[in-house]
C-alpha cells in the first residue's frame, strides 16, 4: 500500500513539473494588453503589434544592446533572415533607455520592426511572457499560433528547422 502511495506521489510531482514548462500556444491576456514603445516614441499594445503580422510567419527576438549573448547571436539572426526572407521579424529590446536601444539597432544593423519594453525582464511585460533569458526567440505561424515559445541563442538549428517546416 505504501509503495502505491509513493508511486502515485512521484507521478503527481513529475506531472506538475512537466506541465509547468509546457509549450505555450498563445499569449496570455495580460501579455497582449501590455504596452511597448515603437520607434516613433508612441506606446502600442503587444496585441496590436501582433495584429500587424496576421497571416505571416513571425519571429520575435527579445534582446538588449548591453547583452553579450545577444550581440554574439546577431550574425546568426542575420543568417536566419537571409535564409528565411519570407518570414517577418520583430525585435523587442529590454534596453534601459531609448537612446541605447536606437543606438544598438543602428550599430548592429538589425533589420526588422523594433519595439522597446523599457521595464526589463522583471517588468510587467517580461513577467507576462515568462521572460527569463535573452536573447529569446518566439516563433508564431501564419494562423497566429505560437510554434516555439522559448528558444535561446543556442537553438538556431531548431529555429531554422521549424521555420522550414511551417512554410
Automatic annotation (TrEMBL):
GO molecular function: oxidoreductase activity
SUPFAM superfamilies, per database record: Thioredoxin-like
GO CC terms of this entry: cell envelope
Broad class of the protein's primary localization: other
Alphabetical UniProt keywords: Cytochrome c-type biogenesis, Disulfide bond, Redox-active center, Signal
Any GO BP: cytochrome complex assembly
Classification via Pfam families: Redoxin (PF08534)
Subcellular location as annotated: Cell envelope
InterPro entries hit by this protein: Redoxin (IPR013740), Thioredoxin-like_sf (IPR036249), Thioredoxin_domain (IPR013766), Thioredoxin_ResA/DsbE_sf (IPR050553)
Annotated Thioredoxin domain residues: 25-167
Signal peptide from the UniProt entry: 1-22
Name of the protein in question: TlpA family protein disulfide reductase
Source organism of this protein record: Flavobacterium luteum
Organism ancestry: Bacteria, Pseudomonadati, Bacteroidota, Flavobacteriia, Flavobacteriales
